[in-house]
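Example record for the data management plan.
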Amino acid sequence: MKSCTYKKIILFITLFSLSLFAGQTAALKVVNPSQASISEENIVSFVVEADSASVDSVVITTDTNEAFNIEINPKRSHYCKSINLHFGQNSIKVVGYKKNAVVKEESRDVFLTSKVDKEYRYPPQKYNKIYFHNEENEKICASCHDMKVNEVQGIAFEDITKSNCYGCHKNVTKEKHGHAPAVNWLCTSCHNGKVGIYNQTDKDKTKYSVPDPIGEICFSCHKKNKEEWSKKQFHHEPADSGRCNKCHNSHSSQSEFYLRKSAWELCTGCHKDKIEGMHVVKTFGQKPHPTYGVKDPSRAGKELSCISCHNPHVSNAPSLLQSSTVFGLCSRCHKK
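Corresponding structural encoding:
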């Protein structure tokens, strides 16, 4: 009898102890991103859950020693911060403090992939792709953010800050050259929630996936290009496969035409054999013809690059040359 009573007491104490902690928020928890995540954009949103009774500040520090301080508010449980990434592995620490003493520390490794640089194209096996916009994550955000899409298809915002996407994602359009759908915050023009033949594994994992290949979406605006290119004999693989975003950043870029890098850097990312050595012919001075670093006579105010001689999309000439004859090609620059 005594043994039975003793067991009941132990059970009661255990259940009572569990009930005390059941409703408590963790002192510190990184909700997003998960550990060993893959990002395809150079900005990732860190979402941190913090208990104001346990911590009074949180510091997020990148492996390039950028630090971001978040003051904890007793009226809030979740906080978000956009963090810039560099290509490859990013190791980011999140530390919770109480009166300057460390309470808890978490870390996240995030791998930023590149569609251009082969060394960053395929992350190590331990990494998994981030899928943020799903029902579970959006419930967390909804206490501070309106998670509904409030754009009207094809109609630009008079005030872009009124877009429900703008607050968290404004940094994707900060570069010099902005793509019209992105800078007008017509996000679902491309982020339509569909998948293509190359990203079937994304299906139903996020509300705003983009089909891969994206070409048909691009051609819905660039109709003339589709019509003209179909008549050409030679096609560049990225354009022919509809993977326009291999070379172009669909949001914004420091380079013209929204290129992910300058034209020369972009081309030599794949065509590395053209970085050094003779290309295409030696001049009368027995030097290689320059491919960059000098003015382009055929394009006022521009620097000579691969696209001075080659069309990056299509051509009727071999090697995607801008002219079907040698004389026609050379005379683009050499007028005399």
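Summary line stored alongside the record: The chain has nine helices and 13 strands.
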